[in-house]
Amino acid sequence: MKIAFDVDGVVLRSIDVILDYINRVANRNLRVDDLTAWDLEPLNIDLRTLHAAVQHMYAQPSVENYSGAVEVLSRIYQTTRDPLLFITGRADPETALRQLQVLPWNPTVPEMVVTGGTRDKRAYLAERAVDFIVEDDPAYLQAYLDAGFGVGLMLRPWNRQSALSVTRRFEGWQDVELWFSGLREQS
Asked: What is the pTM of this model?
């Protein structure tokens, strides 16, 4: 099974960097746990500040990863020996590659492919013959399912209210590891 992983919100804690920037520049006190939707525009943040916050995050040399992400991705790579596939909505996927490469990989940085460029990842999923994507952005999940892709929703504050019936829901990276281990046992 070919698995793809989204980057921001799944592997990297990008929203923390974005909210920190907004809080400093706009004198706000936004917290990740306060988010009930992926889009930040409804929080009355002017678009210029929002775009600057995202560009600030892209420019960072590193972004903290979610607990367990590096360890589980390392084990998946060591098990499959296939390059890890990341599909990002970032217009410039190279910024994601740079931030992924500096994570504390153990024992070494795995081979990885980072592609993308839009929030709707169907073309990239098809192009890479992906069977399953781990995603946090609910915007296109139904479209992915309708196109025949398996979808694992990484639960975050901004998507917990999604009633969409996905293939699998993950509370965190430990759930991803258990699911992946089950796949390996079945094959």
From this structure: 0.95
CA max distance for the chain: 53
Give the β-pairing of 84-88 and 150-154: unpaired
Calpha distance 169→121 (Å, rounded): 19
Strands 3-5 and 84-88: parallel
**Each residue's pLDDT tens digit, 54-72:** 999 999 999 999 999 999 9
pLDDT digits (tens, 9 = 90+) for 23-36: 999 999 999 998 98
Q: How far apart are CA 150 and CA 49, in angstroms?
A: 35
Q: How far apart are CA 64 and CA 86, in angstroms?
A: 16
Q: CA 144, CA 92: separation in Å to the nearest integer?
A: 22
